[in-house]
Specification:
The chain is α+β, with helices and mostly antiparallel strands and 415 residues long. The protein has three domains: 82 residues; 82 residues, no CATH class; 150 residues, no CATH class. The protein has twelve helices and nine strands.
């Protein structure tokens, strides 16, 4: 059959109809259009937008940025390397002021040098630098060096450590102590006191200029705990040395206090620490050493009896609670007690502490404290501390004596 030839008009109409029909792209493996343009109009691909030359700025110099960062880190490293020497020099200058005349004269001659050192330290703590990032990094490094420097010291007593933290460092603005009323309110509500550092029953914040993060605060708390432990070790050695001197003064064996006719003289009582077990209702009792003296005196009834007085006391293991509980002379001087407590020696042969009617409550509590301590020294229980000994995990506070039963509650390992 002969195919009909289309006229020019018919060809144009057919082409126009075909152009209007939707074009279907063949499916390709992996997807996408046949021409690979992903549906982007051809005119956009062939004629990409060019940046206006007025918008064109300088390219960022990677090498310049790297050099600036390197310079900044070099300054931080220099602070960490050199600042400890200036802080040590300031400490040595202050020590001279507590020495003899020759040392004080030397201190006077070094005043200008020390002033320069102090200004340098204070300047680093408020350092601005060439840009905010550099200033923040240098200040952070300076603050961490300064705080770790003070926390790394070895001091001779807990009193010195407390004076450093709550005295000198707070006055200088190196630490901020949380107010007592804030602490008391939180404790009354049973809430945790918001703070960065804890030591000796006090709560501290690190100044904002230090920019201390969580890891920094953990590092500082560990350093602060190290200060407490080193101080305890120093105090413990002094306590042991004093105990030996007290022991040398004893003229009678402690067991003689249980006899019907105890000798008059000096007795040394080595009171062991009793480690508590709350599950069994056992209190933590701090140990220590007592030097006692016995005297024969007349009672109100007219009969004579032998009484024991505390002459001197020292703690053990670096704790102070025992010493505070038996500081009878100091407590009388502070008017915490009306007079020095005395224990009737014959009551040590009984199984209950004495109760004396008409006695001042504070004195009665101290008499029972003596009775419990001497009984513990006589029995010498051989209990060992538990594996998680109180005080190793936290330096929040030290124990305090409970005069009602001679118990000293452990509150060192609470966090």
């Amino acid at each position: 059959m002969k195919r009909k030839r289309l006229t020019r008009e018919e060809k144009a109409a057919a082409a126009q109809a075909a152009a209007q029909e939707p074009r279907q792209e063949p499916e390709l493996e992996g997807g996408g259009a046949a021409n690979g343009n992903l549906g982007i109009p051809a005119d956009v691909i062939e004629n990409p937008r060019t940046m206006d030359l007025d918008e064109l700025g300088d390219a960022v110099s990677i090498s310049a940025k790297a050099k600036a960062q390197q310079k900044m880190m070099a300054r931080v490293d220099r602070v960490r390397d050199k600042l400890p020497g200036y802080l040590t020099s300031i400490d040595e200058y202050e020590v001279l002021g507590r020495g003899d005349k020759a040392q004080r004269d030397l201190q006077a001659s070094l005043r200008s040098t020390n002033d320069v050192n102090v200004r340098l330290v204070e300047g680093l703590l408020r350092y601005i630098g060439d840009n905010p990032d550099e200033g923040a990094m240098v200040r952070h490094a300076a603050w961490m060096v300064l705080l770790n420097h003070h926390f790394s010291k070895t001091l001779g007593s807990h009193e010195e450590a407390e004076a450093l933290l709550a005295g000198r460092m707070v006055r200088a603005g190196y630490l901020i102590q949380v107010k007592e009323e804030v602490v008391k309110l939180a404790q009354e509500k049973g809430e945790e006191v918001q703070c960065d550092l804890r030591a000796y029953g006090r709560y501290f914040l690190v100044p904002g200029d230090a920019s201390a993060g969580t890891d920094d605060k953990r590092e500082l708390q560990e350093a602060l705990q190290g200060l407490y432990k080193r101080t305890r070790e120093v105090v413990a050695k002094k306590q042991d040395a004093k105990a030996e001197k007290l022991k040398e003064r004893a003229t009678c064996p402690l067991e003689n206090l249980l006899s019907d006719s105890p000798m008059l003289g000096y007795y040394f009582a080595d009171v062991p620490t009793q480690y508590g077990d709350k599950s069994k209702g056992i209190d933590h009792l701090e140990g220590g050493r007592l030097l006692l003296v016995t005297k024969r005196e007349q009672e109100k009834s007219g009969a004579e009896a032998v009484f024991s007085y505390v002459v001197d006391v020292t703690g053990r293991e670096g704790n102070r609670a025992f010493e505070r509980g038996f500081d009878f002379k100091g407590q009388v001087a502070k008017k915490e007690l009306p007079f020095i407590p005395k224990l009737k020696v014959s009551t040590l042969r009984e199984n209950k502490p004495p109760f004396i009617g008409g006695l001042h409550p504070a004195v009665g509590a101290k008499v029972r404290l003596m009775w419990y301590a001497i009984k513990r020294a006589l029995s010498r229980p051989k209990e060992q501390p538990p594996s998680n000994e109180a005080g190793e995990a936290d330096v929040a506070s030290e124990p305090s004596s409970n005069g009602n039963n001679g118990a000293t509650q452990a509150n060192e390992g609470t966090a």
